[in-house]
Task: inverse folding
């Protein structure tokens, strides 16, 4: 979740200071892709008024809810076999890859897999093809030194 320093942190939408005078809300990391339309909200705090006026407000709030719903937990269920993943080291969560519903990769947002079932996942090859195309089309730009999409690809191969 975003970290806010009252009177120092700024809203990425208006670039004004965040303080107690104006309500703000916080977002967890939404995407590791700096080219993602919702990236501006990722791990950020924004004024509620600014958020409500932003054209991506509804989508940002929806994705924030999906991130919360798909956070690894003791109740995480594998997409492949429908069973609870009892060993937390075996949980693989695919988060927001793209908010663009026209992208092939979009249908793979917010999936939970047991790493032991990856070889049985019927859509693994389609996922890998879609991710490699997304990258080769220049639609992914990692944030910082950790490349989330490369990590997911590595886990699935």
Result:
């Amino acid at each position: 979740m975003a970290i806010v320093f009252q009177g120092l942190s700024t809203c990425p939408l208006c670039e004004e200071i965040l303080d107690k005078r104006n309500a703000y809300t916080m977002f967890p990391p939404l995407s590791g892709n700096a080219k993602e339309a919702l990236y501006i909200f990722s791990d950020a705090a924004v004024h509620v008024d600014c958020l409500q006026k932003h054209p991506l407000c509804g989508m940002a709030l929806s994705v924030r809810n999906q991130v919360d719903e798909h956070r690894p937990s003791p109740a995480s269920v594998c997409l492949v076999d429908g069973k609870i993943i009892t060993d937390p080291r075996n949980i693989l969560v695919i988060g927001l890859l793209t908010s663009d519903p026209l992208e092939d990769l979009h249908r793979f947002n917010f999936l939970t897999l047991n790493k032991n079932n990856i070889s049985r996942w019927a859509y693994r090859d389609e996922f890998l093809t879609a991710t490699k195309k997304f990258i080769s089309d220049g639609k992914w730009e990692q944030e910082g030194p950790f490349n989330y999409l490369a990590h997911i690809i590595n886990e699935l191969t």
Residues 57-69 form the longest helix (13 residues). The radius of gyration is 17 Å. DSSP finds four helices and four strands in the chain. The longest strand covers residues 91-94.
